[in-house]
Structures are given as structure tokens and as C-alpha cells.
Amino acid sequence: MLHGGGVSAAEKEEVDSRSIYVGNVDYACTPEEVQQHFQSCGTVNRVTILTDKFGQPKGFAYVEFVEVEAVQNSLILNESELHGRQIKVSAKRTNVPGMRQFRGRGRPFRPMRGFMPGVPFYPPYAYGRVPRFRRPMRYRPY
């Protein structure tokens, strides 16, 4: 049976339940070294070291195991040393489409002045009278 190229959300969740996030990975570390570090926890299916658009490692990796139990075993290796660096190990979170975190593009909306209930707000002009149009003043020499 062929399906539309993508992986279903259920399949993704199933893979994520067998995967861990490894942070603070040394840039010189290879996927084989990461696999050796975690092979005592269970059977490693795949190691993904994420890279930026220039192919430089980002300093974190995902390890996918064959067994679900291996995730709990691997959490014991949190703060263990790999390549002389203390790595962070946590269970991989499943990305929920549409639940994008705020990534710092622009400023989050904030009202101009603090709202105080019961205190009326007076606009900068005379209250109630807002000038609609003013004829431009002509320059008149003395």
C-alpha cells in the first residue's frame, strides 16, 4: 500500500516514544560515537545529529531506539560525559502542528498604556473634541 509520502501523526508519535533528545553534543562527535554511548540502554535504530544550512553541527542529536524501554534506561545517562562534555538527555517531545512557539520574530503585542479599571482614559486632545482637518498655514513674510 502506498501512502502520500508523508508519515502519519500516529507513526511520528510512535517513533518519538522510542526517541531521545541529546543536548550539548560536541561538534566533533560522530553518530557512531553517540550510538556507542547509548548502546548499553538498548538497540539504537538511528542517530541524527542536526546541522545548520552550512552543514555545521548544531550541538544536539536525536537517538531513536528499537525498544520503548530504552528511553527510560537512557535517561540515566543524563549529565554523563561524552567527548569531554556533559550531555543532556531527555525524552523527545512530539511536535504538534500549529502549536508553534514564539520564536522572537518581532515584538509580542502589548497595549500602549497599562489598563486600570475604573480610571477613565482621556485622549491627548481636548476631551471629546478631536480636530478633523486643519488648513495648512501659509508662509507669510513680515
UniProtKB/TrEMBL annotation:
PROSITE patterns: RRM (PS50102). Keywords: RNA-binding. SUPFAM superfamilies: RNA-binding domain, RBD (SSF54928). SMART domains: RRM. Residues 18-94 form the RRM domain. Pfam families: RRM_1. InterPro entries: Nucleotide-bd_a/b_plait_sf, RBD_domain_sf, RRM_dom. One of its GO terms (molecular function) is RNA binding. This is Polyadenylate-binding protein 1. It comes from Arabidopsis thaliana (Mouse-ear cress).
